[in-house]
Structure formats: C-alpha cells, structure tokens
C-alpha cells in the first residue's frame, strides 16, 4: 500500500521560529541534496517528527493509533526515509519528497517485527 500526502501544511504548525523559542533547527538554506521541506522534517524534534509521521500515515487512511517508535532509514532516491511502528502494531516506511509529499508504504513480514 502506498499513499502520497502533502506535508507542507503539517509543518506550518510544527515548531517555532528562532525568535520565539525554537523546536526546529532553523537554517536559511537546506544543505545540498535536500529541499527546504525535507530539511525541516529532518530537523524536527523526535516528538514533532513522530507527529508528522503519524499524520502522514493517517492522512493516507492507514491504520495507526499513534507512533510508538520511529527511526531514520537510508535515503531512497534522494528522499529521507523513516520507519515508524504504530502503538497498535502496524509498521510503515515514510519517504519525504522534495515537494513535501510523503510516500507511505506498509511494511510486512520480518521487517515489520523489527
């Protein structure tokens, strides 16, 4: 199962600016290789990042009651990727595109059991 979700609007509420007390590392430009949206997701605190991953999963109409654990995985085709295990069991891979679109893929078998 694959779902594509636009994350730009989700990131608008995640974190604060440097002037108001930062939850997000603020860089004026993303490092080479990542778009500003991708870098912003990378820079989120674990709690905020898990919230973004949860919304990507749920917005794709996938079952998930909350992200119990998440880990950064190897990039795929230049996109940062996280694995996320939901508190009710399902596991997903979430890849963030340069345009802020998340590709969510359900993980099954041995990989899902971690």
Topology, please?
Layout lengths: L1 E5 L1 H5 L23 H8 L2 H14 L7 E10 L2 E8 L4 E6 L4 E7 L2 H4 L1
Antiparallel strand pairs: 1-5, 2-3, 3-4, 4-5
Question: Can you walk me through this structure?
Answer:
There is one protein chain. By secondary structure, this protein is α+β, with helices and mostly antiparallel strands. Helix content is 27%, strand content 32%. It has four helices and five strands. It has a five-stranded antiparallel beta sheet. The protein is globular, with a radius of gyration of 14 Å. The relative contact order is 0.22. The model is unreliable at 15-30 (pLDDT under 50).
Cα-based radius of gyration, to the nearest Å: 14 Å
What low-confidence regions span 5 or more consecutive residues with pLDDT below 50?
15-30
Shape: globular
Return the structural class.
alpha+beta
Number of helices: 4
Strand content: 25-35%
Terminal Cα span = 19 Å
The major sheet is characterized as: 5 strands, antiparallel
- Average pLDDT taken over every residue: 80
Question: Helix proportion of residues, in percent?
Answer: 25-40%
The helix/strand series, from N terminus to C terminus, equals EHHHEEEEH
Number of strands: 5
- Strand arrangement within the widest β-sheet reads 1-5-4-3-2
Question: Any key phrases for this structure?
Answer:
114 residues, alpha+beta, 5-stranded antiparallel sheet, 4 helices, 32% strand
């Amino acid at each position: 199962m694959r779902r594509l979700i636009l994350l730009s609007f989700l990131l608008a509420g995640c974190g604060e600016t440097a002037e108001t007390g930062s939850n997000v590392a603020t860089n004026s430009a993303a490092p080479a290789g990542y778009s500003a949206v991708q870098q912003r997701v990378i820079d989120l605190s674990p709690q905020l990042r898990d919230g973004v991953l949860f919304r990507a999963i749920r917005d794709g109409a996938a079952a998930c009651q909350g992200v119990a654990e998440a880990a950064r995985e190897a990039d795929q085709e230049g996109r940062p990727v996280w694995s996320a295990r939901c508190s009710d069991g399902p596991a997903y891979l979430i890849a963030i595109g340069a345009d802020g679109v998340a590709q969510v893929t359900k993980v099954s078998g041995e990989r899902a059991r971690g």
